[in-house]
Amino acid sequence: xxxxxxxxxxxxxxxxxxxxxxxxxxxxxxxxxxxxxxxxxxxxxxxxxxxxxxxxxxxxxxxxxxxxxxxxxxxxxxxxxxxxxxxxxxxxxxxxxxxxxxxxxxxxxxxxxxxxxxxxxxxxxxxxxxxxxxxxxxxxxxxxxxxxxxxxxxxxxxxxxxxxxxxxxxxxxxxxxxxxxxxxxxxxxxxxxxxxxxxxxxxxxxxxxxxxxx
Length: 214
Hints:
By secondary structure, the protein is mainly alpha-helical. Helices cover about 55% and strands about 0% of the residues. It is built from eleven helices and no strands. It has helices at about 35-40, 50-55, 60-70, 80-95, 100-110, 115-120, 125-130, 140-155, 160-165, 170-195, 205-210. Helix 4 (about 80-95) packs parallel to helix 8 (about 140-155) and helix 4 packs parallel to helix 10. The radius of gyration is 18 Å and the shape is globular.
């Protein structure tokens, strides 16, 4: 039984999309996407398959891009850049979203996340080890990871975790940790559920990141 996957406006024609090998649905075609979606897709000077999936939700995609874009901008984001990346990389590895990790790892590299921290994320250091003092983490790192690990395991946090967090993070930072975690956990689920394809190599990516991420 065949399934028609080309009926929605803005879908790529499968036979003409060399980027689609594993994804279970077509990617949005920016040329035929609704204007509000097309405008957001044109923000980046290179292709990211995740946005071509999220763009199928033509009403929710533009405001969602406002949240994602805000993470890239220190004038909007409250947390320091490497806190943001710590949340994203821990979320991606915990949820098995390799694409999300691969997209964000260059940001962490460009802005100086310590290799020891990246190694600890890559080896999936346990929540128990992080909490007990193992690894290269600062006190700030540890409480952020504790929030993330509890949320990803139980969808909530222990009251004592929040009390400990309030001694290190501002209330604004604490709430932002949860917002960023929730946003990137949602993206991870889209990535895994729809079997996204890896992005093509982007020449000059690190230099573009230096100019565009604050």
